[in-house]
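Okay, can you check this protein?
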Amino acid sequence: MATTTITTPGHVTLQQPVAPVTKRMKARALDVLFMLMYMLIMLSVLTGIYNSLSYSSSKDDWFMVLCVIASLPVVFYSVIMEVLNGGRTLGKQIVGLRVIKQDGGRVTLVDSLMRWMMLSVDLWITMGLGVLVMCLSSRNQRLGDLAAGTLVVPDVADELLAYRPNVPYTNPKYHPTYPQAADLSMNQSEVIDRTLVSDPFDLQGYASRLSVKVQQVLDIVPYPQHDKPQEFLRTVLNDYRYYCSRPLVESAQG
């Protein structure tokens, strides 16, 4: 199975499998089947309603209005399902797929609308060009995915966690020590990371000074086990990345 690298807003890097083209086509076929079933059921219901109505000059007009309203769930099917069902249509849910953002986050209404608008280009206007694009794309993305910045991935939370790097904050049992770390900005976390990498033993005193600054900014009193500046900063950084990684895990479990 092909994989791709996902970098979350908190600089959490994951190797994430992407959905095979065949599975995506199977999910699409199931979605089409469900939509056809819905349309047949609604046609039967609306026909019954039409026949039960007494004749009037506006009878046909009202019937057309009902038909338009009943067709809306089919027209906006993928948008409705992806937004309300965590990036999954019924077909994707059965096959075991999910749509996510390229940074691992949950898809938004805007993302789903962009994918929906490009679907006609992918399938009908270009005579199936989207399928060819998926086959040629390293991430198996159709034109709608490229435009919306989304990926279709296996819908398995445990599989997602299995591809995480072996660092403390990716452990499902990890518990953050300093909740204030969630208030760090990305730039501040990068400063801490660079400091720990460039001067791991604090020979220049960088970590000591930065540790004091972080304690002041976040209003933290270090626990005794973190009396060394490097240990304190490393713990704060792991806590920050833990909080940043939560949206991705929730999306996968979602």
